[in-house]
Amino acid sequence: MTTRSNAPATRGHRLGLRNASAGVLVLCLGALVPAATIAPTAAFAQDLSRGADNFYRSDRVSVQPITFRTQYGTTVAGNLFVPNDLDRSADHPAIVVGHPMGATKEQSANLYATKMAEQGFVTVSLDLPYWGGSEGEPRNAVAPELYAEAFSAAVDYLGTRDFVDRGRIGAIGICGSGSFVISAAKIDPRIRSIATVAMYDMGEVNRTGLGNSVSAEQRRETIEAAIAQRWAEVDGGEVAVAGGTDLELTAETHPIQREFYDFYRTARGAFTPEGASDRRTTKPTVSSNVKFMNFYPFEDIETIARPMLFISGDQAHSREFSQKAYDLASEPKELLWVEGAGHVDLYDRVDLIPFDRLTRFFRTNLADQEASLQP
């Protein structure tokens, strides 16, 4: 059954996004915004309101670092979360959680995995290939097919645990991982239920920007720059990164970048993987980022035909993608607008994240059918 909750009034907000092309380019395509750097002020300090708790730990959940292999023989790093009171002699539902694009499992994914494990699910958070603790060189490379495969590999891993029911595995994709888990689910029916939160369609946003703010000419310029950088790397040059989250705030910093900065560049959510540079976190490689332009996760989304829940803030700059995916998806599907929430709010603000709705969705759709039929 179709469910829509709290649909936002969008006209004024959409117009604002259409005028934000400079900010979109910095965020998604690696373009630079020239501006004089200014000293940080109190206005730029981290905002820990509404329960921001990215690094939350629970004394009711055990956490174990894990690795598992993909179908291509590469290694993915993750964490396994198991409720302390889990009966390991029985089979239980499980959920895979993917982090925002440019992040690691320590940013948002672990929080969601912990909260869902508190509700009785076995969960796995993963690092996408080339990011965090997962295998892949160069670091921060863009490889949408391998990102989707990581979700299927996580299903492989969970399905080989003695206490997990292979027929009751779902997935949550946050931000860019929303599009990656949809891509995976289209060809992997073992992912029985899918939820996306603050989703970005990483293909569309790189092709046309938010609200179609990127022109065809700008797209061609981006491709040409990527190919020039590819030649530079072929000739022995350093692998360049760009885009992602700005390293410093300036008087000209776009509000969308400020939103990301408050999470990724402050103690609220900053995390640098071992051996990495904090000046390269969140930033994809220039020569590989154009691969997103060939990524179309919403094509054939209607073929999934399994329960899907799309969650977005009604103030989120990214909400067009949740709306579009919902419109294209087949039943059963649900669309939930979180009142007053922006895009990054749904990374870590536990007072806004609808964990109750996620719990209900997965309990309903990953239920033990045999047990439910018993008197």
Structure description:
This protein has a single domain (3-368), classed as Alpha/Beta hydrolase fold, catalytic domain (Rossmann fold). It has 375 residues and is α/β, with parallel strands linked by helices. Mean pLDDT is 90; it is low at 9-44. It has helices spanning 11-18, 21-29, 105-118, 144-159, 177-187, 202-208, 216-234, 255-264, 286-289, 319-328, 345-348, 355-365, 369-373, and strands at 3-5, 61-69, 75-83, 92-98, 122-126, 164-174, 191-197, 308-313, 333-338. Helix 4 (144-159) packs across helix 5 (177-187). It has 13 helices and 9 strands. The protein has a 9-stranded mixed beta sheet, sandwiched between helices. The longest helix has 19 residues, at 216-234. 50% of the residues are buried.
Keywords:
globular, 375 residues, Rossmann fold, 9-stranded mixed sheet
Short structural summary:
The protein has 375 residues and is an alpha/beta fold. It has 13 helices and 9 strands.
